[in-house]
Design a protein that fits this description.
Chain A is α/β, with parallel strands linked by helices. Chain A contains 11 helices and 7 strands. In chain A, the strands form 2 sheets. Chain A has a 4-stranded parallel β-sheet with strand order 2-5-6-7, sandwiched between helices. Chain A has a 3-stranded parallel β-sheet with strand order 1-3-4, covered by helices on one side. Chain B is extended. Classes of the chains: A alpha/beta, B mainly alpha.
Amino acid sequence: MNAGFWQKLAALDRRWIYLVIGIVTFVPILAYIRVPVNITYEVEAVYRKIDSLPAGTVVMVPMEFGPSTMAEMQPMATAVLRHCFSRDLKVISTAMQIEGVILNEQVLRETAAEYGRNYGTDYVFLGYKPYPDLVILNMGENFRKPFPRDYYGNELDSLPMMAGVNHYSNVACIINLNATSGVDYWINYANGRYGAELALGVTAVIATDYYAFLQSKQIFGLIGGLKGAAEYERLIGRPKDIANRSMTSVSVAHVFIILFIVIGNMAVFAGRRGGRG
Amino acid sequence: MAIQYFVPHHVSATIYQYALNWTIIIGIFTLAVGIGSLINLHYDRIAKRKQTWRYSAVTLAALAFMTVVGLFSPNAMADPRGLFMRTYFYVLSPVQATMFALLAFFIASAAYRAFRAKTVLATLLLLSAVIVMLGRVWVGDTLTGWLPSGLQLSDIAKYILDFPNTAAKRAIYIGVGLGIAGTSLKIILGIERTWLGGGK
C-alpha cells in the first residue's frame, strides 16, 4: 500500500471512529451473546466474606456513585445487596455523593423489597451528609453523630436494627461501592483509624489505584468496574443479569480500541516511511 | 489529631472528640462560603458579559430552581412524582449519564490519534495497556488459552496489576503523602502563606 493511503488513514475523520464504536457497543447489547467471565481472586474474596457471615450480622454498604457512573456501579450495588439480603444480613447504607443519593436509595429499597426485607429491621439508609472525610471519621465514633436521623427523618434510636449498633466495631465489614476519590477516606479513616474490615467496589478506571491496598491487606477485596460486577453476578448465581449481558459490548469495544491503536500506529509510521522514500 | 493516633489516652481521646466536633462546624461554614463563592463567580461573569456568561446564567438559574423546588415541596425526596424527583430522574440523571457515556467515543478517538509507540517507554505503556485490556475480558483467554498457565494474557494482566502497577502506585502514594505532610507543616508553621491570598 502506498504512502498516500497511510497518510489518509492517519488523518481519518474522527466521526468514522465514533460510528464504529457506536455500532460495536450497541449491536452486542441487542444480540446478546453469552461470553465467559473468569472469576478473579479479589472479587471472590468479597463474595466469600459475605457468604461466611451468619444470618443477622450487620454489614455496611456505603454507596457513592451518581448517574454518570451508574452503568458500572448500579449492577455492582445490586449484586452485592442481593447477596447480603439473600444471606439475611442486615445492611446499613449511606450515600455521600450528592448526585447519587436518590439513585442509591432506590437501589437499596428495590433490592430489599425483592427479598421481602423491611426498613428499620433489616436495612437502614442514613442518607447524605457533606464532607465524606468528616462523616467517615465521625461514624467511627458513633453513627448518631453525623446522622442523628436517617434519610427518612427517623431517629436512629427508634430503628430496631440500630440497637447496639454504634460504630464500625459493631459491623462485620464495610463494602464501599464508590466511584469517587472519596475511596481514600474509607481506607485512611474507616480502616486505618478505626480498623474496620473494608472491601471496595470501584469503577474500572480507578480500580488499578487500589491493588496496592489489596496487597497490603488494608482492603480484603476489590470489585473493579462492570467486569467485577459481572463476576459477582456469576458468584451469586445470576449469570444473566445486566453486567453479564453487557460484557459482550465491553469485550468487543476493548478489541476495537486495541485495533484503533494498532492501525493508528501503523498509519503514522508507514506514512512517514513512505514520505521519506 | 496526629498525636491521638499514637497515644490512646482518655485526654487525647477527649481532645480528638472535641476537634471532630469543630471540624463539623467549620465544614458547615465552608459549605456556605462555597455556595457564596459560586454565586459571586457566576454573577461576575454575567455582569461583565464575559464569553461564557450564558452558561453562568444557566448555572445560577438551575441552582435557584432546585433550591426553591427542594425547599418548598413537601416530602421532595420521598415523592417520586414530585417536581424535585422528576427533575432528578428526567434532567440531571440523563445529562450526567450521557456525558460519561461520551467518554467511550473520545477514548477510542484519542487511542487512534495519540497513543503512539514513539519511544521505548511509550511502547511499554502501550503494550501493558493492550495486555491488561485483553487480559481482563474473555478475548484474552480465548486468544491465549492454548498457552500454559502463567503465560496466558489474563495471567500476565494479573501480574502487571499486582506487581509493576502496585509498585508504581505505592511509590506515588508515599511521595504524595510526604508532599502533603511537608506542605501541611509549612502552612501550620506559617512558612507557606500563598493560600491566604498574599502574593509570595
